[in-house]
């Protein structure tokens, strides 16, 4: 019997080496075809392969990107999808991202890039894949249409499902995902405070955790109630604004001396409405084009704030050049100025910013202001008389709120906040002093704040009374000084009139001892 030799089986490492060699050869040939194949032939070959893939590949892929269009605005569905997938991703996905939720007591997990999670809806399985695309410099991103720096990477989610479930996915399933995701976002939402000061061409943010409310705001109850009603009415007026054909926005002008609570008022508004805050630093904006881009990157349910607008830029200098024009004609008269603002004519008084008054007016209520609804614009100033009338008229700044010196009603709010007092025998003395003395709520709060553990409420009230008496004495001294100055100016006017009369009247004029009285006789 002939015995045949047994061939030893190929070892596993050699098998892997052969497979790797085959794969490398395939990619080498593919790269050579891409380089040396005529472009038209390569395009037709690629199209054929894609058609072949569509024919044999039974799945449909839907991508939801972080930004829409040319990356001008965040995609409203993206955070909802991210929140929805966070429920299942923590159970199956291996690479996760952890973030704090609203109460900062627990973490919320979402899947990291290049991870996938399987979701089931009405017995049908769908696959979600988290991915990231790289945008070449100068292609896509905000920097394409505007002067900002383009973002190199954009995140997106890809939904993959069988084509037989198209109607189910495009109908009930995606509606279920968006609705559930928005509910989760609302529960876990952390409001943010944005600023453009650190990065000129984009927004950066920190979590907004200011404790101010209207209950703790030092203000007369009637004025406070009026503002609260106006804010809540605006929040619920989406259909009303759509019916009258106006953008869903409202402007508030807060003006008054320093220390009267303008910034605290903004924080209280944000807490009442549960809005984000965008603190816009005009001196960091290069020009009108960048200002528009920053506006498009804001979201709904937000408050855009420009504090101390009279100091941010010289926005009245251009109005002097068009003297004699009516305020409604400003935008028309300064159309060229708006365009030249991006080319080199600065209105920033040495700040390097080329934002013009026309550009700011368009920012407030121009066509670009309607790019996102449910938005409040707030200006603050210490000198409202310095602002251009076109900037503060109704329709741009719809509600003007004067925050003045501390009244007795405002003091009672501060006393309750700082000392937990609703009444005290010293309150009457404080009331009498406040009726004749100007003092800001910030100064009152400083006097009421205990400086040591053994400083009781009565001691704080006496410190306030002392501060009021000093402010009263200072105020009386200033009034006396002002009265003396007025008397001196009147005497100077009389002397000047006497000199003019002596110079220009005829020699027949006879002057009495009082130089301000002149009697002419023949």
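Q: What amino acid sequence fits the structure above?
A:
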């Amino acid at each position: 019997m002939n015995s045949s030799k047994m061939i030893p089986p190929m070892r596993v490492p050699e098998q892997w080496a052969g497979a790797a060699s085959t794969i490398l050869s395939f990619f080498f040939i593919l790269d050579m075809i891409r380089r040396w194949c005529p472009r038209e032939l390569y395009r037709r070959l690629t199209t054929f392969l894609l058609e072949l893939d569509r024919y044999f590949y039974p799945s449909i892929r839907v991508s939801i990107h972080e930004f829409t269009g040319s990356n001008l605005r965040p995609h409203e569905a993206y955070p909802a999808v991210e929140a929805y997938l966070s429920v299942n991703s923590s159970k199956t996905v291996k690479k996760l991202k952890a973030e704090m939720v609203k109460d900062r007591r627990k973490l919320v997990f979402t899947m990291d890039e290049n991870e996938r999670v399987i979701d089931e809806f009405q017995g049908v399985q769908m696959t979600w894949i988290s991915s990231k695309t790289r945008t070449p410099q100068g292609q896509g991103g905000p920097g394409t249409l505007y002067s900002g720096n383009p973002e190199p990477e954009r995140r997106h989610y890809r939904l993959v499902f069988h084509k037989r479930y198209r109607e189910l996915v495009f109908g009930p399933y995606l509606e279920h995902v968006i609705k559930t995701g928005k509910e989760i976002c609302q529960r876990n939402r952390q409001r943010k405070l944005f600023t453009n000061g650190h990065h000129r061409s984009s927004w950066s943010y920190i979590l907004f955790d200011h404790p101010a409310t209207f209950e703790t705001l030092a203000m007369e109850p009637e004025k406070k109630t009026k503002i609260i009603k106006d804010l809540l009415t605006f929040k619920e007026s989406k259909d009303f604004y759509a019916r009258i054909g106006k953008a869903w926005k409202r402007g508030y002008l807060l003006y008054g001396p320093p220390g009267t609570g303008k910034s605290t008022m903004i924080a209280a508004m944000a807490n009442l409405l549960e809005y984000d805050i965008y603190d816009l630093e005009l001196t960091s904006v290069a020009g009108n084009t960048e200002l528009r881009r920053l506006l498009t990157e804001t979201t709904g349910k937000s408050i855009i704030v420009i504090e101390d607008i009279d100091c941010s830029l010289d926005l009245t200098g251009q109005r002097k050049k068009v003297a004699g024009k009516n305020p409604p004609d400003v935008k028309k008269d300064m159309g060229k100025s708006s365009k030249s603002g991006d080319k080199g004519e600065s209105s920033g008084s040495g700040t390097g910013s080329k934002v013009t008054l026309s550009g700011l007016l368009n920012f407030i209520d121009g066509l670009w202001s309607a790019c996102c609804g449910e938005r409040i614009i707030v200006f603050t100033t210490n000198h409202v008389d310095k602002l251009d009338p076109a900037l503060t008229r109704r329709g741009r700044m719809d509600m003007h709120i004067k925050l003045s010196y501390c009244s007795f009603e405002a003091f009672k709010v501060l006393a309750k906040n700082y000392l937990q007092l609703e009444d005290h025998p010293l309150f009457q003395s404080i009331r009498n002093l406040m009726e004749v003395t100007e003092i800001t709520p910030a100064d009152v709060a400083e006097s009421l704040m205990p400086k040591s553990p053994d400083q009781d409420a009565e001691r704080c009230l006496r410190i306030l009374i002392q501060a009021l008496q000093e402010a009263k004495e200072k105020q009386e001294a200033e009034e006396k000084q002002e009265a003396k100055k007025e008397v001196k100016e009147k005497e100077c006017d009389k002397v000047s009139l006497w000199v003019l009369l002596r110079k220009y009247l005829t020699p027949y004029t006879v002057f009495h001892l009082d130089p301000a009285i002149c009697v002419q006789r023949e």
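Q: And what stands out in the fold?
A: The mean pLDDT is 79.
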